[in-house]
Write a structure and sequence with these properties.
There is one protein chain. By secondary structure, the protein is mostly helical. It has a single domain, classed as Heme oxygenase-like (Heme Oxygenase, Chain A, Up-down Bundle). The chain is 67% helix and 0% strand. It contains eleven helices and no strands. Helix 3 runs antiparallel to helix 11 and helix 9 runs antiparallel to helix 10.
């Protein structure tokens, strides 16, 4: 059941729309997922953390591509000037000194082969489908919906504040250096979500547009949740690793 299906019926004030968007995150963001709770409790094996890092790389690597699609569709130069910071954050100045490179450092710090991670060949089929769906969404839906889908960054500092201290405390092979990716992310996410939220609240000026941005955020939360569902199914107690996907101890 989608409790937000008719949330914008009759129209919302900007404050009302913001409250609904924050309620979506409070109920659907993936810091509520059981796998996240297992991670922060120190209950995951090193192999499970490897699988998480490898699959999450697929998502990290598509972020600047989806942002480039958003950038290309924006006619406002001020919007473009602000939005392109996201691409610079992830690609860096040469493609390999930004967030994607720092995520690769996390993955290799957990013992994975860097070329395997970059190839994405060991990623779960569900991960690839979820990431592809996100890229397609930002390419094919309206600019407003694409921007709204990025509002999961409103909640990113929360999950990082839960994840990083727990990983350092619970896993003795994880160091500050391995988790370097997360160091700049809270400030970047706050900057980016502030801009995106202001844009969405200004542009979503009809009930139809308001419902569309609510649905866009729900979709993005579903993408992130589905990725953790797939990891739990493949590397949790069921142990149902699909053919061709990363399997600890098996040559890839």
């Amino acid at each position: 059941m989608n409790e937000f299906a008719d949330a914008a019926k009759g129209g919302l004030s900007p404050e009302g729309l913001e409250k609904i968007l924050r309620d979506v995150g409070a109920s659907r963001y993936h810091n509520r997922h059981p796998l996240h709770h297992q991670m922060t409790a120190g209950a995951l094996s090193k192999e499970q953390l490897q699988a998480w890092a490898l699959n999450r790389y697929c998502y990290q690597s598509v972020i600047p591509r989806k942002d480039a699609m958003i950038l290309a569709r924006a006619e406002d130069p001020e919007f473009r000037a602000e939005w392109r910071k996201r691409i610079e954050d992830h690609d860096g100045t040469d493609g390999w000194n930004g967030g994607i490179a720092r995520w690769l450092k996390l993955a290799t710090g957990l013992g994975l082969d860097g070329e395997l991670v970059k190839s994405q060949k060991g990623a779960l089929p569900a991960t690839r489908f979820a990431v592809g769906a996100y890229l397609s969404f930002c390419t094919e839906r309206s600019l407003l919906e694409a921007v709204a889908s990025s509002l999961t960054e409103l909640f990113s500092p929360v999950i990082i504040s839960e994840r990083v201290p727990a990983m350092l405390a619970k896993y003795d092979y994880i160091t500050d250096d391995i988790l370097e990716y997360f160091r700049p992310r809270p400030a970047q996410a706050s900057r980016d979500s502030d801009f995106a939220l202001a844009y969405v609240l200004a542009q979503a000026d009809t009930p139809e547009k308001q419902q569309a941005v609510i649905n866009a955020l729900i979709f993005k939360c579903d993408v992130l949740w589905a990725m953790l569902d797939a990891l739990e199914q493949a590397y949790g107690e069921h142990g149902r690793v699909p053919p061709g996907a990363f399997a600890p101890g098996r040559s890839q």
